[in-house]
Design goal:
Layout (H helix, E strand, L loop, with lengths): L4 E5 L4 E7 L2 E5 L7 H11 L6 E5 L5 H4 L2 H8 L3 E4 L3 H6 L7 E2 L2 H13 L1 H8 L7 E3 L12 E5 L8 E5 L3 E5 L2 E2 L5 E2 L2 E2 L2 H12 L5 E4 L5 E2 H5 L4 H11 L1
Parallel strand pairs: 3-4, 4-5, 5-7, 10-14
Antiparallel strand pairs: 1-2, 2-3, 6-13, 8-9, 9-10, 11-12, 14-15
């Protein structure tokens, strides 16, 4: 049975809560100063200690993993993510070796570095070691979820997405919708990001649930690709 995806808006970043048999799966956890909003949303949905079956982290950045350690302890659950981002959450090193395509993002990060905001946030990050390492094409049925894992490197080397059997993609930061649907503007490896987008283009995706911004239809993003790829994507998804 398809799981409904509940968006938990944590300011500028999203978490997603999915109800599964006998509990819930949470995808991404937001940052520490939005913890009360996240906990209220979990409580309102009936998600509490004992029935949060798994926390999945789409990638290691603190705006996605910032409450993972806290929730694991409080809800007595486990954290799963891709091995390639494990060092980020174990050591709290987030932004090394990444390029910012957006001028606005470059300005924001420059200000944060100048004011020490980034260093303060990193110092407050609650480090953790994941309990489970997820692999490309891995089924999540053992966790009650009719979905599979997609390894989507580019934004980070361990970025992943979840594709449900009904065609919903929880994309992490591989795709975003800040102003309009697009691929990530914070890039560790541009060639790998392009390969990940190509990989998604060959799958049957209907709705995208991005890490930032509102959900959107895949075809909206396909239209931003070059005309030939957009045409191929429309034909594939009919």
């Amino acid at each position: 049975m398809a799981s409904e995806i509940q968006t938990v808006n944590l300011g500028f970043v999203n978490s997603y809560l999915l109800e599964v048999s006998q509990g819930f799966v949470l995808v991404d956890t937001g940052i520490r100063n939005k913890r009360d909003i996240l906990e209220k949303a979990l409580n309102s949905a009936g998600c509490g200690p004992g029935n949060l079956k798994l926390i999945i982290i789409t990638h290691g950045d603190m705006d996605h993993s910032g409450n993972a350690a806290y929730l694991r302890d409080k809800f007595k659950t486990k954290i799963a993510m891709h091995r390639n981002d494990s060092q980020m959450v174990e050591e709290g090193k987030m932004m090394s070796k990444r390029r910012l395509k957006s001028f606005l993002m470059r300005m924001i990060f420059a200000i944060m570095r100048f004011t020490g905001g980034m260093q303060k946030a990193a110092a407050r990050f609650e480090k953790f070691k994941p309990d489970i390492y997820l692999e490309d094409e891995q089924s999540l049925r053992d966790h009650g979820l009719d979905a599979k894992v997609l390894h989507l490197p580019g934004h980070t080397k361990g970025s992943l997405g979840l594709l449900t059997e009904s065609g919903d993609l929880i994309a992490g930061d591989t795709l975003q919708n800040r102003r309009s649907p697009s691929s990530s503007t914070i890039i560790e490896n541009e060639a790998e990001l392009s390969s990940s987008i190509e990989k998604l283009s060959n799958l049957s995706i209907k709705t995208v649930y991005p890490g930032h911004g509102n959900p959107f239809q895949w075809e909206q993003f396909a239209a931003s690709l070059n005309p030939q790829k957009a045409k191929e994507s429309r034909a594939f998804h009919r």
